[in-house]
Specification:
The chain is mainly alpha-helical and 163 residues long. It has helices at residues 2-18, 24-34, 39-62, 84-104, 109-119, 124-133, 138-161. The radius of gyration is 18 Å and the shape is elongated.
Length: 163
């Protein structure tokens, strides 16, 4: 019986990793409240599914067509810093560069991903996309997402199932 529960949870986890309106936390809370499935099994399955989905996003960014050819640093188009839109675009570029540098650094890539997977700050969706564009190793990304999501979902499932 637990194999089917795990398979169902993994499937939902994969879907919720890439489709924003499928909320994994709501799924786990509903299962814990109704006791329709074992909440801990479902939490582990959703964590595995979310990891599979986020790694797929990570790899999709990393191996997108034309990515290797684009590594020759082209200078971005200059923006007019006298306008609001120009300042907004420049701040966005600066923030993206800082995040990309942080995810590429071996000291910050795994902690940022763990924090994002456990607390969702910064959102894991964006971290998966930026991580794919960085030099972060896929194994480290997958392991940190699995550990962070497993801890988050198991704690949530245990907390809800106690009532």
């Amino acid at each position: 019986m637990w194999v089917w529960q795990l398979a169902l949870a993994v499937g939902f986890g994969i879907g919720s990793a890439v489709v924003l309106f499928m909320d994994a936390e709501t799924y786990i809370v509903a299962l814990g409240a109704t006791h329709a499935l074992n909440p801990v099994t479902a939490a582990i399955g959703v964590a595995i599914g979310q990891t599979i989905g986020k790694v797929a996003m990570f790899l999709a960014v990393r191996y997108r067509p034309g990515y290797a050819a684009r590594k020759t640093r082209k200078e971005p188009k200059p923006v007019n810093l006298d306008t609001r839109w120009g300042r907004f675009v420049q701040r966005n570029r600066d923030l993206s560069k800082r995040l990309l540098d942080a995810m590429s650094d071996s000291r910050w890539g795994v902690p940022v991903t763990l924090l994002s997977a456990f607390v969702s700050v910064p959102p894991l969706y964006g971290v998966a996309l930026i991580g794919g564009a960085s030099r972060m190793r896929t194994v480290f990304f997958a392991a940190s997402v699995l550990v962070g999501r497993s801890a988050r979902f198991v704690l949530l499932a245990l907390g809800v199932s106690m009532f």
